[in-house]
Amino acid sequence: MRTVRLGVWVFLMAAAAACTAQAGKNIVVQTRYENPIRNEHYPELLYWFVTPQTLAPEDYRLDVDHIMRDTVFDFPFLTAREGVDFMDSPEGHTAVAGIVSEGHAKGLRIGLSLPLQNVDTIRTFALNDDQTVVGEAEETLDAGGRGSVTPVVKMRSAKPLKTELLRVVVFQKTGEGVYDAATLSDVTAQARSTETGPGAMSVTVDLGARYAGYTVFAMTTTWFNALDLMSDAYTRWLHDAVDQYRDVPLDGTALDEFGYMRVPVHPAPPFRGQFAGRAFSARFEQETGRPLTQTLFETRYAPAGHPEVRIRAIDTYWDFLRKGPLDIEQEFFDYSRKVFGEKNFAGIHNTFHNHFTNDEAWATGLNWWTIPRQYGMSDEDLSLPLRMGLLVAHPGKIMYDQFYGMDIHRFAVKAMNDARFNARLHYHGYNDTGRWGVDLSKDAFLSKQMPVERKIRLLNRFDPAAPDLPVLVVFGMPSLLNWLPDESARNEFDINASLHIEEKVQAVWDAGYRCAVVPSDLIDNGSLRLDEGNRPVLNGHTFRAVVYLYPQFAKRTTLDFLDRYTQHGGALMLEGEASRDFNGEPIGQIFDRIAARARVRQFSVDKIAELGVKPSPLRDTGGELEDGSIILTDLDSLETNQPKPFAVDVNGHRFSGTYVGVFALMASASGSIEKLACGECGALKRDGREVLRLRKPADLVLLRNSAGAYEAVVTGSEGGNGVKLRH
Predict the structure, then answer these.
(1) pTM value?
(2) Which of 267, 290, 321 represents a domain boundary (last residue)?
(3) pLDDT band at 14, cuts 50/70/90?
């Protein structure tokens, strides 16, 4: 670092009465010259495939050198590919240890993605510790009370080991999903069952003419080659997996898309299985006080006149099911920090297929917002309003979206657009052979994308506040997972496909209303609350309006939140009706109060302005931050090397000039620059008067320290440029 008295290059001219004493005085600016400007504050993440070609020291040393010399990436996460194994593998362990040692010597941090999901391809566990899936089938008995059904369960990622009969009941149906309670009989002991194939069982009953016209409903349980997430065996496996690398000074550990064994992507017929297992069942009964088998039956049928039975069963089952992946994520987070230290970086995302109404809930439990991470994380181009929800739900001021693809230019477009809202790319993947996307180690990619990331580094040094997101969109998780009473809303994954939540929130964003999307879970777990001013607050982020989508089957904590919020004048747009709560109990009185106070009843993008918020004036160019600063980005200026003209209002002042790639500014009420990041900065005007100029355009980061002194980082050689600054 060199302290430079810029003399003729730095002047301060008072912009407010408090600054008058400094008028005309030269200011000492601590200036560093870096080429390129180095990264600070936020890691530049990379997925690095460890393949058979990576295992040899002479190969991974070349890779480390290449990453350091030719890329911006400073934090690769290792992931096994093409037959390489990290678990119970001396060869894999040796390679990881060597890469970490070599990386540390060159200044890289190294993380490791552990394949806990693949435990069943590595080890064999007791059958009682395996995950099971309950299948079902029903039929109307003939005139002699005879009938045969064949429940079949198919999964995508695990093979069935054996199938047993769980329960068989008969009853008279009085409607879809409804039966006459007086006619219900358990006939399991009278049923005959035979395994007819993998995950399939034929179940036959012959009950006599008395049961003619009755419905027989059979439930089977199939054990799969997949470890029960609720089992103590899974926790032991997790600890053992981490302990295998206890001797390696890892900087981060990761679970990638962790969750249950996978259901079919395109199930035909529709998937109607339900996860279970010995440990799963025992813990369910312990926590809910209800037997799992009875609850699973009640998710399909309720006695006539008691719809609350089925509502409660579905809601309770999903609520419990979703804890499985989340509890393992939390244990992995805690144990990794115990082994590798409190600064261990937690990765990666647990978004899987990235939508609400496909197989996502069955895989990850839709726990995107609650898994323990320093930063919100997603993958595969999750929509910005959803990613903003992940950002505000986690401690960090930015978030990462893991991204890959065959089109190099898409990386640049996405990186620049996302940077406006404090989103960064987690690049996937270095040395990709083409299965997932382009090879990030090749010049074809690096020559296009590294200039983009070097500009985004300026924003990292700027250390922006979180995005200003005036609208908080909350969707009712129970409504998404419980389609009752509308059978037509039930999709092939047993999810409510009629709500179109993702489409609605994208319409809000596209209309220029910056918003973050979170589930009602965050109200129920106490993360989202109301402050003393009746403003919704989540993790330190304050919102000015709430759009609540679909309150049906909400928990009482959510209803109480909405009741208090509207009672004290909170700006609420409310979409959907609610007749019953999470337990199926009537809620007409409290819901009517909430609905009557809602500022806007029914979802409408055209009426969001009635909530007292405005579209962003930067909707096509940049984003506002919570502290009043702004970020602008422009890819075309970087690709053509033609500076982008701009004029933008910041804290009551009009700033104008040009930039290449990125521009970020924080200014005081008097107009003084508090922080600035600018690609190829030339001149900057405030209210028509020039306040900053570089002798020669260059990348610049200008900061003010706690004592009020300015510090600058400029690209170029030492002393090769000067900064002229006025206030």
Answers:
(1) 0.95
(2) 321
(3) very low
